[in-house]
Amino acid sequence: MQFDLIRRDRASISMALLAPLLALLATGLVSWAIFAAIGTPAGLALWTMAASPFTNWYDFSEVLLKMAPLLLIAQGLAIGFRARVFNIGAEGQLILGAIFASALPVWFPGATSPLLWPAMMVAGMAGGAFWAGIAAFWRTRLNANEILVTLMLSLIAVQVLNWLLLGPWKDPAGFNFPQTAMFQAQALLPGLLPGTRVNIALLFASVASVAAYILMQRGVAGYRLVVTGTAPRAAGYAGFSAARGVWLSLLISGAAAGLAGAAEVAGPLGQLQRSVSQGYGFAAIIVAYLGGLHPLGIVVSSLVMSALYIGGDNAAVFADLPQAAVRVVQGLLLTFYLIAATLVRYRIVRARVAPA
Amino acid sequence: MAGGDAHPLLRLEGVSKSYGPVHANRSVDLAVMPRSIHAILGENGAGKSTLMKMIYGVETPDRGRIHWDGAPVAPASPAEARALGIGMVFQHFSLFDTLTVLENVALVVPGKPRALAARIRDLGRDYGLEVNPDARVHALSVGERQRVEILRCLMLDPKLLILDEPTAVLPPQMVARLFDTLRALRDRGVSILFISHKLDEIRALCDTATILRDGVVTGRADPRVTDTRTLATMMIGREMPSPLPAGTAKPGEVRLALSALDWTGPDPFAPPLEGIELAVRAGEIVGIAGISGNGQADLAALVSGEQVLPQARSGAVALDGAAIGHLGAEARRKRGLAFVPEERLGRGAIPEMALWQNAVLTAHDRGLVRRGMIDRDAATRFTETCIADFDVRTPGPHAEAGALSGGNLQKFVMGREIMLAPRVLLVQQPTWGVDVAAAAAIRRRLVEMRNAGCAILVISEEIEELFEICDRLHVLRAGRLSPSLATPSTSAEEIGEWMIGAAEDRHAHAV
Fold it and tell me: Which residue out of B53, B352, B405 would a mutagenesis test of the A interface target, given it has the greatest number of A Cβ atoms within 10 Å?
């Protein structure tokens, strides 16, 4: 039996909503099979992963804590992805943001101004935008592929971080651990939900989501970006600058990632450490696509993805699931989503054989 | 032609094909006799291409039978069709630019290179299809590339050759040569299916015509003895639109001026533009004739602003007397220049976007954007007006541009640009791939615009069209522009001579 993919006359909205659910379902099934195959109690592991983040308040607050950087970065990346500017190096931009933000409390450990944490956020955005701007510069100057440049800059960012933490910024009273001293209270973000670690970074992410929605779904600036990405010749015809699109995409996504990095050091960490990013920069790519590159979809997908992190941690404890399994589940999710997303523009038809 | 006892080479019986809700072909009957040049005539979207694809094995019919030499067949792939003896030359060539002619042929035809090269030369001599087997395809003209395509089919000794709108890409002199080739083929026993919507060509070449409309056969005729009007009526189902209310124009002030414009683009195969001098006045239509690839693309981009000149040479392009060469497309549009490009999909319109979103592309400063936000209601209203005024056949402003047929999308793009009320309108290939009725409507619009005082520059390969609507013509060849030729006093032959460079030589000798 043969099947054909037939292009739909227009994108199916119901399929666009159904695709992430199909992907979740398929991921669940395949994960179950893999867990069973490696000898873990598959049912328990899956149940812990899927349900535990939502069944008690503490775990759910941790989900919200993780959601802030993922949501923030993914909103920025999605803007670029829709303009077909593929910033794969949000990880590096996050690290640069964290470094720039940390510079203030590291250099001025005695500062007690209430403006210290806001200044750190601004510095973080500047750091992320600067790192992404390097890629924009080479892309517009020499047509250097931004995928490669941003990715390689991420590796450089990690080395810069290592050098700072092993050298000039190392806490002298820190038993030689590669980390800075703990920041003063004014360098920390105000909390949002009493009794939890959730801070106002979640507000930043919410504001960024609203802004992304207005820019991309309503604004003419977003329209221009999408046109330069999807139809470069039409953009040239209309007079929209492709270089402007590249700069805007990379600066926005870089600033968002930098802000996420700043919020990490001024939030749950309270200092700059090597593990400042837990792979948020790369996970956000999955979040952006899982959310259909739509600002509202990304809010949902970032929640799902954060829950997966927390659920995975719990499953590691309670169901003896290896940590790497969580990565596998993330990968499966993205793969199945990309497969399911095909059905938004295409439908499957059984190929008919002509009567001979 | 079809003698009572003659046995058809190819016979289709009740062949139908649907794509979802669209019926491309409905119960089509067709009989192609041996040694016949058989025309398939129809407007764009009439189902000609789908029918040919089923014969050539690209598509399978939903219903119906195909008989070849009296036996039922069901070609499931072009390879099977070629094995039967069916060859096809597509409108868009399927040659690899970076390979030589011989290498392109060897991809399809088995044999040793030396033997293949000899056959290419022999067949070329026999049928007027001379081409150097060792030439690389990118260095060939469109006419030569078509010869390679035909040669490649002939190498497989077909009994039936299908040609999909083969003259669409050819200058007039080459059309005559192609026809000689096709007649020679017929005389040696090859039947030809000739797809076209150009009535005069079919009358000159074909002995039988099957006319399609909306996927249904609406008539069969001998085009040599049937008059154009009858054929046209079968094709479009109504009388031909009356000729244009041309009238004589009273040209006003110069709106668009190109002076001493030189340009060398990055494309190594496009000739540099040299010393272009051109003026378009209010209330006149000026045409640029010539075959694509002679600098048309660069000229259009330099006028539209897609290609910007350095500040120092800005004066080479002037709008209303002001130098605009350094300005981008958006700035020129603000000053009253509108442009309908050759490629509607991907350049004039974004396929994945709805029509109302495509309206925003160039009309965004006509009240469709307020304080940086797109006003959806205003854009939808603008689009509805455009759909109604320009007879765009579509479900509505929310249809995606990619779902429209070529002709309807052209009407939309043309309508959108006209609604900008431009002072100067640049149109490239206004009716390329557009059916007869829509083409007539588009030409009438252009003439109305001119009568209302717009300055219009038309770049087109279709000479008949230029003669129909233009007040003056230039010919662009090898990056140089001919002197201005007044349409009433010039002839197709004179234009043709400028197109192939013969007139230039004569001028050079006379001086």
Answer: B352
